[in-house]
Amino acid sequence: MLLTRPLLPSARMAKLEDIITHTTDILQTANEERMLSDREFNLQLQLRLSRVNLTKSILRSKILEFGLGFPMKEYLYIVGKLSTEIERCKKEVKGIQIDLLTELEIERQLLCNAKIDETIVVLALRGASKSM
């Protein structure tokens, strides 16, 4: 039974909640640092996360029907609809996280390119003023 414990719906749920928390933290930090310039993308991401949080709450309610701890009844749900729904939700959150991280890297690259261009202009102006 110890080997199957990570497959229990409650264990899967804990992992799902960790992923959601991590993704939400990344989004919050990105917004605080004003790293997401595309407002539409930001709103779509927030909508997707809100939907995931609703699904998480529904799934959590189903798990609470088993009672607290690891009662024997929960072992019957290691494979089945509840576990499948949790894994589907986890996959959605990972997709959100990938989209968010990809967008952040694009924004970082744009900032780096702007910084490089700015530095080139400053160096060119200094070089031009020294040659006069």
Mean pLDDT: 88
Assign the structural class, choosing from mainly alpha, mainly beta, alpha/beta, alpha+beta, or little secondary structure. Answer: mainly alpha
Count of individual beta strands: 0
SSE run: HHHH
Poorly predicted runs are: none
Count, helices: 4
Number of domains: 1
What percentage of residues falls in helices of 4 or more residues?
over 70%
Notes on the structure:
The chain is 79% helix and 0% strand. By secondary structure, the protein is mainly alpha-helical. The N and C termini lie far apart (82 Å). The protein has one domain.
Outline of this structure?
With 132 residues, this protein is mostly helical. It has helices at residues 9-32, 39-64, 72-75, 81-130.
What order do the helices and strands come in, and which of them pair?
Elements lengths: L8 H24 L6 H26 L7 H4 L5 H50 L2
Helix pairs in contact: 1-2, 1-4, 2-4
Give short descriptive properties of this protein:
mainly alpha; 132 residues; 4 helices
